[in-house]
DNA sequence: GCGTTCATGTAACTGGTTACATGATTTG
DNA sequence: CAAATCATGTAACCAGTTACATGAACGC
């Protein structure tokens, strides 16, 4: 089984969910397309890790809600003890930053100034999501054994990583303005 | 053309390189397997963005060195002005952190304590690579228009992102020890 | 001689994306 | 009545991984 299968199974274990629900849970932390989720759910059901039933909704289209089986609980329990696969980052900006020397100074500065704008927007989205989360919990986080706790800590991580990235971009812009570069200590 | 093709082409533009060289340049910032690089290089040559020649080496096996063509320079120049594809992060730890509530407190703490160990090792590797870079440049970074500048700024980024991640893990461990959680401001 | 680093390639597979396809319900 | 959101699926394609395959040069 692959990582996304475990992630989906874990969410269903936390509470029974539809493919659409799962997509929305995962989106903030893991890019995922609905086509992949529905395909994976079909496989999980085929392997008897989950069962499904149609739940009729009055105000919205009906949904197919998946529930974990005993067999599914066993594999998810085991997964937590397995070592983590190395993280995979694929970021076009990182490649451009690495190759920044191919550009002239004005182009280079533009690359980082645009990045700052992008990151500031990302930070705003994070803060908005934190506000939504607070509203979802009526302002109180009582227990860590909820999916809300996971959402909360990961949103905080994302937010502060973004802040560091912004400061890093500003540091690079300062470097680009210097006549004589050197191996400067990163200022924080 | 995909992102990795542009990255490889950009490196060859900076200076003519073999597949093996390219792999080592990319490794610290972008996980990539040699099989993908050699396949991509063959495609870039087929499309006449690069040319190749065998360079004989006395002390090592011969290598196939690729050089960019005029046609290749045009596409790489254009690439810099294109908007960046959204970054893609796939991290098994993030999924486990999201689902941390499925575990008991002891297991949860273990997850983050192990993560800290992993991140501390990552920070050490970053610092080692920074030392190697300094040695490669004889202690002086004169110009931003070198691949060394790109290596330098990205290693600094990675290092400081890692430091923030460590502090974040410690914050989560503190949270897990609290009896009454709440939406605490992240302490920095 | 054995392990490591340097060096290059191909073939099969699979995870993930893009595009195709449909339809209910709500809000403006 | 149009757009947005909710909701679910399939098929074709391709990027990237894993495994297979080879071999030179060097240090111990």
UniProtKB/TrEMBL annotation, chains A, B:
Transcription regulator PadR C-terminal domain span: 89-177
Transcription regulator PadR N-terminal domain residues: 8-78
Pfam family, one: Vir_act_alpha_C
SUPFAM superfamilies per UniProt: Winged helix' DNA-binding domain
Domain of life: Bacteria
The protein's name: Negative transcription regulator PadR
């Amino acid at each position: 089984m692959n990582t996304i299968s475990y992630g989906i199974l874990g969410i269903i274990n936390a509470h029974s969910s539809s493919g659409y629900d799962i997509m929305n849970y995962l989106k903030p932390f893991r890019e995922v397309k609905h086509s992949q989720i529905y395909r994976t759910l079909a496989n999980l059901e085929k392997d008897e890790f989950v069962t499904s039933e149609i739940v009729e909704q009055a105000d919205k289209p009906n949904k197919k809600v998946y529930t974990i089986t005993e067999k599914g609980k066993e594999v998810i329990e085991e997964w937590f003890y397995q070592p983590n696969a190395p993280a995979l980052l694929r970021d076009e900006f990182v490649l451009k930053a690495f190759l920044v020397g191919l550009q002239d100074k004005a182009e280079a500065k533009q690359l980082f100034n645009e990045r700052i704008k992008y990151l500031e927007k990302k930070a705003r989205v994070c803060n908005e999501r934190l506000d939504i989360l607070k509203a979802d919990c009526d302002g109180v986080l009582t227990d860590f054994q909820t999916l809300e706790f996971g959402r909360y800590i990961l949103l905080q991580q994302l937010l502060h990583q973004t802040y560091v990235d912004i400061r890093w971009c500003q540091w690079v812009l300062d470097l680009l303005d210097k006549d004589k570069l050197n191996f400067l200590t990163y200022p924080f």
